[in-house]
């Protein structure tokens, strides 16, 4: 039986997607913009739990686990923080924008999702949860000078501090890796504070 590559995440609304486009555009259009693979804002999300390959028959069970986690929380607000990179500025591989707002609640929600998934057999993530949105992945072939120039642009990039959204639901998402990039399909969603829906 073919496995499904899946993860649990918060999807962004159009306001935040548009704000991400405004952050990315001057960086993409710069003379070093092509050293990175830029993630489409429509595909950017806050990952709470990466599940890996799961049997299709477990989708409903996982969706129920996510529902149980979401029952504990009311909707909350998130917005953008500063831009940064992983793993460090000397050799950046990922460019990201941080998340501000009700980060303590977001972290508690991630803990709850982790705990409920652990109960049904998914091992907890060892790395600490760092709320962020991935904007780009720098290509391995990029030289150090190009990386430095792009990082200088990142450090001076403008972020709209007024762009925010209410987090109202969490989705179980399928990821299909294709040559053109990942294609995401919502398998189910769970609303904070209770009700759920199928994708």
Please, could you describe this protein's structure?
The protein is α+β, with helices and mostly antiparallel strands and 199 residues long. 29% of the residues lie in helices and 38% in strands. It has four helices and ten strands; from the N terminus they run βαββαββαβαββββ. The strands form two sheets. Strands 3-1-8-9-10 form a five-stranded antiparallel beta sheet, covered by helices on one side. Strand 8 (169-178) and strand 9 form a beta hairpin. Helix 2 runs antiparallel to helix 3.
Please summarize what this structure is.
With 199 residues, this protein is of the alpha+beta class.
**In what range is the share of β-strand residues?**
35-45%
Query: What structural category do the secondary elements indicate?
Result: alpha+beta
Low-confidence stretches: none
Portion in helices: 25-40%
Question: How many angstroms separate the termini?
Answer: 22 Å
Identify the strand order in the major beta sheet. Answer: 3-1-8-9-10
Order of helices and strands: EHEEHEEHEHEEEE
Q: Given the structure, what is the number of helices?
A: 4
Shape label: globular
Characteristics of this structure?
199 residues, alpha+beta, five-stranded antiparallel β-sheet, 4 helices, 10 strands, globular
List the helices and strands and how they pair.
Layout: E1 4-11, H1 14-28, E2 36-38, E3 45-54, H2 59-70, E4 76-86, E5 94-101, H3 103-119, E6 132-138, H4 144-156, E7 164-167, E8 169-178, E9 181-191, E10 196-198
Antiparallel strand pairs: 1-3, 1-8, 2-6, 4-5, 4-7, 5-6, 8-9, 9-10
